[in-house]
Amino acid sequence: MKELQSVKQRFGIIGNYEGLNRALDIAVQVAPTDLSVLITGESGTGKESFPQVIHSFSLRKHGSYIAVNCGAIPEGTIDSELFGHEKGAFTGATDSRKGYFEVADGGTIFLDEVAELPLSTQVRLLRVLESGEFIRVGSSKVQKTDVRVITATNIDIIQAVAAGKFREDLFYRLNTVPVRVPPLRERGEDIFLLFRKFSVDFAERYRMPAIRLDNQAREMLLSYYWPGNVRQLKNITEQISVIERERDITATILLSYLPDLKKDRLPVLVKDRDEKGFGSEREILYKILFEMKSDMHDLKNLVFEMISNGGEISSLTETGLKAVNNLYTSSPLQKTESHPAHSVTLNFPGQREKSLIQDTEEVLEESLSLSDREKDLIQKALGKNNGKRKLAASELGISERTLYRKIKEYGLDA
Ligand SMILES: Nc1ncnc2c1ncn2[C@@H]1O[C@H](COP(=O)(O)OP(=O)(O)OP(=O)(O)O)[C@@H](O)[C@H]1O
Ligand SMILES: [Mg+2]
């Protein structure tokens, strides 16, 4: 444990998440052996420190360490870069040249984005891994080298094998020890440690006070999908540090820096920032929105199933068609913005679907109006807490004052 902390410190790795610790522990354990290590993990998860950790804890630490980004080298020159070439081997080869495998003899090579290697290079790589032998491009002389190979990829390499783009035998050879670097969204509270570190670093670099997040912004940090992982967090922390004058960052400000959200990856989000008193009601709205979102999801599946199981579109009533239309053309969030009262009934006249239809009607007749759902929720909370507003408000996650206003608004005090 203590050793891991010092490794983290030395390599600037922040975080205590179990999955991250496990990955680092494997790296340290496997370092003194010569086993091949394949590091996998989404883009921006921090894979690049791992081969450095492995090399510096290995017996080769005084040998050379060469990192090669296989994705950045053109297909035509990669063999020559890795294995060298002889004079005249190809047009422009005016001199002979050593490749990385020759230079790194006695050391470590890190092949980043290894899945990008062309198949012909994969054959050469397999050979050097199995026998230590390689041949310079344009030569016939077999040479020997002693190199430890560490590889990394952010793509699903098993899928690449299945698609015939990556040799299966090479995959097994590289994957002797797999190390999985977990995505940021899995790491829970680590995200706050990372954010604080980055915000302090950028504050120092740009000579200004560090930015801080309010509670809702912190929540958003936790619930966001982070497709670009730690790299994305670092980038937006830098952007916010530089661009925002305000040092206390709210969820609304933060949201404007979180682009490209797929619908099913939405963080806690409410668009209507100008609506009065909105802040205190957010939580209840989140609850409702998420409930609605999952209802919608179920509905879509159900309706789709019914249609593909033989329920004719032409046999739908007008209301039914409208419901299908609503479900498939707009997102739940778009609907809540205009607050329409959605109360829809689907009527399939077919006999065969009868039992299914009855269930469906129950689901579909449930009101999807935001205010109806809110009112209902408030009533339930009041009932459950014997009319005690303080308790009901705290259960709903809103302030007593807001609850009081809502009770008046919906006439629940009558
Ligand atoms: N645990 C961490 N602590 C501190 N900084 C980190 C951590 N993980 C990643 N970073 C930083 O995030 C950035 C991205 O990391 P890195 O380049 O290693 O990603 P990667 O996994 O190699 O991504 P890709 O697959 O896109 O190459 C780097 O600036 C790195 O320093
Ligand atoms: Mg990388």
Write the layout of secondary structure elements.
Elements: H1 2-11, H2 18-30, E1 37-40, H3 49-56, E2 65-69, H4 78-83, H5 100-103, E3 108-112, H6 119-131, E4 133-135, E5 142-144, E6 148-153, H7 157-162, H8 168-174, E7 177-180, H9 190-206, E8 212-213, H10 215-223, H11 229-243, E9 248-249, H12 251-255, H13 278-308, H14 318-329, H15 332-338, H16 354-365, H17 370-384, H18 389-396, H19 400-409
Parallel strand pairs: 1-6, 1-7, 2-3, 3-6, 8-9
Antiparallel strand pairs: 4-5
This protein binds adenosine-5'-triphosphate and magnesium ion.
Adenosine-5'-triphosphate is lined by residues 12-15, 41, 43-48, 154, 194, 230-231, 234.
Summarize this, please?
The chain is an alpha/beta fold and 414 residues long. The chain is built from 19 helices and nine strands.
Give structural notes.
- The chain has 19 helices and nine strands.
- 29% of the residues are buried.
- It has 414 residues and is an alpha/beta fold.
- The strands form three sheets. Strands 2-3-6-1-7 form a five-stranded parallel beta sheet, covered by helices on one side.
- The longest helix is centred in the C-terminal third of the chain and has 31 residues, at 278-308.
- The protein has helices spanning 2-11, 18-30, 49-56, 78-83, 100-103, 119-131, 157-162, 168-174, 190-206, 215-223, 229-243, 251-255, 278-308, 318-329, 332-338, 354-365, 370-384, 389-396, 400-409; strands at residues 37-40, 65-69, 108-112, 133-135, 142-144, 148-153, 177-180, 212-213, 248-249.
- Helix 2 packs parallel to helix 3.
- The structure holds adenosine-5'-triphosphate and magnesium ion.
- Magnesium ion binds next to loops.
